[in-house]
Amino acid sequence: MTAFLPSLDRGAGDNLQEQIVRQFITAITEGGLRPGQRLPSVRESAARWCVSRNTVVLAYERLEAEGYVEARSSSGTFVHRMPPGARRAITTPSAGLEAGESRRPRPARSSLDPAFVDDGQHRPLQAVPLSLGFGSNMPLYRAREWRRVVQRLLAPDGWRGGGQFQPNAGLPFLRETLARWLTARHGLPVDARQVIVVAGLQQAHSIIARALLRPDRSVMLEDPCYIGKRRLYEAFGEGVRPVPVDEHGINLHDTSFDGVGLAVVNPGCHVPLNVTLPLGRRRQFLAAARAAGTLVVEE
User: Fold this and answer.
1) CA 144 to chain centre
2) Domain 16-86 falls in which CATH fold?
3) 201-298, what's its fold?
4) Would you call the peptide bond into 224 cis, given omega within 30 degrees of 0 as the criterion?
5) How far apart (Å, rounded) are the C-alpha atoms in residues 267 and 256?
6) pLDDT in tens, 120-157
7) Which of 188, 190, 189, 195 is CA-nearest to residue 173?
8) Which of 104, 139, 225, 287 has the lowest CB atom count within 10 Å?
9) Where is this region: Disordered (predicted)?
10) For the chain, what are the domain ranges?
11) Helices 201-212 & 227-235 angle (0-180, nearest 10)
């Protein structure tokens, strides 16, 4: 476990939480804390740093929101396997080169997976272990137990006898479970009636576009973004206003919210650039959206 000890100045202008966050970011980006390294627990950190547990919790939550650490269930908090500094190195063409060094040309490679390229050589198929999904390596002999558990969960909603038509918003027990989780995880007073279970992002964006967009308002999308999302909003006949994304996420320089009814963003892990929007830019974005009366949808 890391022996990282922040140097806290209680007479400084910024509060202890800000100091802890800033020093953690410096240690992670400069290599003092390595990706995957486990961090002290909240209780241990509070005792070692002589601060309240709430200060540590808020600092860890902010570091997690900005992509520097990740919380793993029942395991603790760890330095993110690919923190923002590492992501910028991957997306920067000259990353890792010394001054004056040129990148050697690489041989051309097909963008297709070799398994789908017919090179005339037929290889024997390899056995693949059965997996029930969600990262599970549950062996086949437990499939019957898995089925019993699923049937017991679905029975209250009339699925034991082969199923009945269910509400379009999703199974009631699933929506209630999600509402309880959201309330406990984010402190939001979520009611099950506010939860809609969708088949995927395309369906979610279709519902959002139909429900929230007005004919005289445009939608703001990150540029670049998932092409299917952009085409969906264009198909609805709504004007799309792109907002550029750099190595720090959304860049609001010279960006206007005038006439924008809906802004769809992915601040946690942008696709396809894989960058995390820092807290400062998040606040700037929300302030601009609030001033313009723009609804914000976070993926």
Assistant:
1) 34
2) Arc Repressor Mutant, subunit A (1.10.10)
3) Aspartate Aminotransferase; domain 2 (3.40.640)
4) yes
5) 19
6) 554 554 554 444 444 444 444 456 666 676 666 666 55
7) 195
8) 104
9) 79-118
10) 16-86, 162-197, 201-298
11) 30
